[in-house]
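Objective 1b: paired records.
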Amino acid sequence: MKRKIVKKLNKEQKSLLIALLLGDGTISSNYVFKLSHSEEQREFLTWKHNLAIKLGFKLNGIKEYICTCGYNKGRKVLYTQFSINPTIKALRRSVYIPKKTITRKLLNWLNPLGIAIWYMDDGCINVNTSKQRSSIQHSIRIATCVNQDTAEEIIEYFSEIWNIKFRLFHEGKETYSIVTSSEEDCRNFISIIRPYILQVPSLKYKIRNDFTKQEFLELSPEAQDVHLL
């Protein structure tokens, strides 16, 4: 019997898998790697699906079902799944210990595209237009929702690799997210992710430079392009 040759994934492919997993992706105990989104995020899921196909992965297309329990009960859920491969199995074993855990080893695989995907899944921009301030201030927040040690490790990663300073944001119940430390850090972060967010027009509000999310979405497409950091 011939030995089956398993093709190893390249760095770009591994970075994509890790980025998708750091965000909203999940790998079940039987190694099913699944990406799920609401109907409102169909464009985003389609973009992820097509990106993975372009990089050589096999997926089962975009499916949908009606959620029967929990917060999204009665709402349409869209999803796609990867064909199982050895890297997905290895990720499941190394990341779920026992729940999804972010490590520096994982972060070191990320490229700009990977950071953009993580942000599109779990990040937002805060625009402070308080009258008490002399100018509009912006900050990037990534809802990591991890313990303090892990959050500090993520902060160290962004500082060492990307020269972007984040600080801790206490979510409560001993969980932390991260927030950029200055206007400059916010701009530098957006300069990394901007090319990819512009590929998903429905998410351009995540790099707006003014207005609330709703106000930004109500702008014409031409006006949106002007009001981006």
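Objective 1b, second protein:
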Amino acid sequence: MNKFKRLLGCGLAAAMILSMTACDEGGATPAVTSGVGVGTSGVASNPAATTTTGANTTTDPDANAATDKEIKDIDTGAFTPDGNSGVVKFLGYYDITVDQKGAEQVDVFESETYGGKIEWISASSGAAYYEKLATLIAADDSPDLLTFEPLAFPYGASKNMFEPLDDYLNADDPIWADMKELIDSYVYEGKHYYFPHRMTTSFALNYNRKTIEDACLKDPYDLYMNGEWTWDAWRQMMIDFCNQSDDNIGWYATDTITTSFVNTTGYPVIDSLPSGDVVNNLQSQEITRAVEFLSELGRNGLLYPADHPYGDWVSPQVWAPISDKILFLGMEPEWTYIAATEELQNPAGVENDIFDTPSDLAFVPFPRDPEADQYYQGSGTFGYMIPKGAKNIKGAVDFIMCNRLFDTDENVMAQVRNDHIAPAKVTYTTGKYEGMQKWAITWDAQVYDMWREMCDPTKFTFIIEDLYGFGTEFQTTITTAVYNSTFGEESWTQQVGEIAPVVQGILDEYAD
């Protein structure tokens, strides 16, 4: 079995109760190769559980009025646009033109340098995302661009939903050097369909540093820096916190997020190899051990109960004001930090905005498996694919390259870090807030550097999980089993015995 999944560097851009009053010191269609192993996660009960990013959270329709923000100057030596990119129709469950994670790239694309324009077509996330895409393709009304999601490969590629990119992009081009191995792993029937422009953190453990301090716990960041951030340390911290109040909860996570914990063993549940083989790890000792660890957390009452009054989907915005009750939120860290901070500092309107102040929020990677030989982390990618039948492929390719340049230009990278920790004052130039300052998140420098470190190949070995690329039935079959094992009475071994034939039957559909 191939233990390692796409080892790559990050694309650049980028237990006891404590006192409540005092703290102590201190090529072809993939063939299927049967492996040994198990799946992980919970029930896919909400669309956002399958997303890897999120939109700008503001609810104020006037918040996106024109401002005096400057557009970054990107070195175009590696790719020179002709200034005629045109209108690119983007299908997405969020608007990248105003999103905190993509608006600057859009500004560059819409400048005279590229001469482009992004037109957003709204869609739901999850399976509905691909249902709408299929409908548009069938009606010969395809969008030109959409973000990559796990269901795209191999499922979407096998359904002929995307344009191959070999005629437009070259994986051997020096600008893709650090991503080439990953790009080549997204070959389907001999063609490249996906050129990710950067690696991303997958999911992480988000927390409120004030909650940690008030509970007299050690900061997880300090434990991580000291090499002490392990499964056992994490479990003990949640026990200590939950023992302080019956209302306290150790960890909230959705189905997809628990998979990132399992990946710390060094194994993906399903591994789609560049050779075309698919390794099915549904019965491996390592993943079984991880799921049983989660089950123990559930039995000890440390996990968020499904019937909790906070609801079954605790988004960053929901978590932000109750982060004194939920110690860890399992979620993608960049989005969570932005969205939760914005919830606290940027209510509708600008009158009550909090400026130039980092929040108390922070995050750390999932803890290290004490039995693993290295520090493994689940990881992902960020990039775009071009749907079948797109009318402006040239413009879509230009936007893909614009994003790659943005993430590899050293001057831009330095500016981006400074923009995060010391954002320039930006004022509205039109609308009812004209002349007033527009809110922007101010990142804590330590948190920002932690985020970048979580994409550092010298710190982690990255695991990309292919569980979510074989259709919703496949995903739900496995994640439901993990959920039942974690929160129910059935053991993981029992669950695996029941689902193994179904899982293998679906994988067989992708075999030669």
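The longest strand covers residues 86-92. The chain has a mean pLDDT of 84.
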